[in-house]
Amino acid sequence: MTLLRIQLASDPGTARRVLHLHRQGRIHHDSREAARQEVWRQGRTPAGDPVFVGVTNGRRHVRLLYDVEVHPDTVP
């Protein structure tokens, strides 16, 4: 399988909340679904659930980072 890194624009408050949930072993369902939708938007087929890997540094422009496995036959 091929991994695709997805970056979702976020605000600092949401990024802190997602990171906090991740550290508790929980999932922020809205951002995970947004990552899945971004994979579909790029014309690729997800092969599994998006995996949260972190946030970018930034005061105003924060991004949530997700890795998503995609089927290799959908990668251009």
Describe the structure in your own words.
This protein is of the alpha+beta class and 76 residues long. It has one domain. 33% of the residues lie in helices and 30% in strands. The protein is built from 2 helices and 3 strands; from the N terminus they run E-H-H-E-E. It has a 3-stranded antiparallel sheet, covered by helices on one side. The two termini are 14 Å apart. The mean pLDDT is 93.
The number of helices is 2
The dominant shape is globular
- Give the strand line-up of the largest sheet: 1-3-2
* Beta-strand residue fraction: 25-35%
- What composes the largest sheet? 3 strands, antiparallel
> Structural class per helix/strand content?
alpha+beta
As residue ranges, the low-confidence spans are none
Layout of strands and helices, then pairs:
Layout: E1 2-10, H1 12-23, H2 29-41, E2 51-55, E3 62-70
Antiparallel strand pairs: 1-3, 2-3
Question: Brief description of this entry?
Answer:
The protein is an alpha+beta fold.
Output the keywords.
76 residues, alpha+beta, three-stranded antiparallel β-sheet, 3 strands, 33% helix
